[in-house]
Amino acid sequence: EDGKGKWWEGLNPADLYGLPPGQRTPEYIESVKQNWVLRHTELVTKYDVDMLWFDGYGFPYKEYGKQVCQNFFNHKLQQNGTIDAVIAGKFSNEPSTVKDIERGGASEVLPYPWQGITTLRTWFYKEDTDRMEYKQNARTIIELLADYMSKNGNLLLNVELLADGTIPAEQKVMLDDIGAWVNLNSEAIYASKPWLIYGDNLNSYLKLADDGTDETDLAALQEQKKSAHFNERTAASPAYGHDEVRYVTNNKALYVIVLNPAKGDIVLPSLGLNSTQKPGKITSIKMIGGKDSIKFRQGQEQLILSVPGKRPNKYATVFKLEGVL
């Protein structure tokens, strides 16, 4: 009768935590691994998930984890005729997996797809969470997404949930802003690919001195380049310069994402006709969400693009360039 009518009816609550370490015999450990395989196989077959995400640097329980992933792929193949599924984790070099970077991103365009993972504040809601400051907001998440896309990456965003399953009100406002930006600029996001380089006027936030001189913090720059996990920019980071951009491509168009736009001309050296990227002659530039064509001058050494004062929103602005590719 113990547990009748409870959520754990028919189960053993002791299985939630297992035996004390001193009582874990080889036979017991083997049973835990087998149980893990059964539960996760049920997860991927019964609930038709699209992605498995492992918070670790390898497959859980090594070969047992690989067995679950094999079951996952086989189920998708049998169900859909294709393996439309993703296995992600902090893997270093595992075939058929997506490399995760926790609260950070790549410093260059990577030849393989990868994923940056972050959260707005903390990984889960708890009693004292309301006293914590937000590490991210709508602006910085949009900037991270643009940066990661330009380097062949994806962004996985964690959201805290209250006990009743609802999203905290202030986080819902952020998500609504992010969603509106993504919907507006969807043609530059979904199925987009990186260009030959990821951006122009790089590391502008390390160069902003009041007198206009170059004040680049070389030590900070080198640390950012060599690190991956936990190198992300946050709401406390210095703002990007008004001319720093990220590049992505889609459907034979090049998209220029101005991270911190302001009215005025910006100079993009990589889009000059003589640049090493060998861009084509631009035929038109349009601002996503705007109606009018954008003024520009493409010369041998640079592209001068005129950013209008009136833009669709207060976040990063996206321009569609025809003729470059």
Provide a concise account of the structure shown.
The protein is an alpha/beta fold and 325 residues long. The protein is built from five helices and 13 strands. Helix 1 (26-46) runs parallel beside helix 2 and helix 3 (138-150) packs across helix 4 (169-184).
Explain what this protein looks like in three dimensions.
The protein has five helices and 13 strands. The protein has 325 residues and is of the alpha/beta class. It has a domain at 1-96. The strands form three sheets. It has a five-stranded parallel beta sheet with strand order 1-2-3-4-5, covered by helices on one side. Strands 6-7-8-13-10 form a five-stranded antiparallel beta sheet, covered by helices on one side. Strands 9-12-11 form a three-stranded antiparallel beta sheet, with no helix packed on it. Helix 1 (26-46) packs parallel to helix 2 (63-80). It is elongated and about 75 Å long. It starts with 25 loop residues before the first helix and ends with a strand. The model has no long low-confidence stretch (mean pLDDT 91). Residues 32-187 form the Glycoside hydrolase family 29 N-terminal domain. Residues 243-322 form the Alpha-L-fucosidase C-terminal domain. One of its GO terms (biological process) is glycoside catabolic process. It holds the Pfam family Alpha_L_fucos.
Radius of gyration over alpha carbons? Answer: 24 Å
* Fraction of residues in β-strands: 15-25%
The computed structural class is alpha/beta
> SSE order in H/E notation?
HEHEEEHEHEHEEEEEEE
C-alpha end-to-end distance: 70 Å
InterPro entries: FUC_metazoa-typ (IPR016286), Fucosidase_C (IPR031919), GH (IPR017853), Glyco_hydro_29 (IPR000933), Glyco_hydro_29_N (IPR057739), Glyco_hydro_b (IPR013780)
Organism: Sunxiuqinia elliptica
GO molecular function, one term: alpha-L-fucosidase activity
Function: Alpha-L-fucosidase is responsible for hydrolyzing the alpha-1,6-linked fucose joined to the reducing-end N-acetylglucosamine of the carbohydrate moieties of glycoproteins.
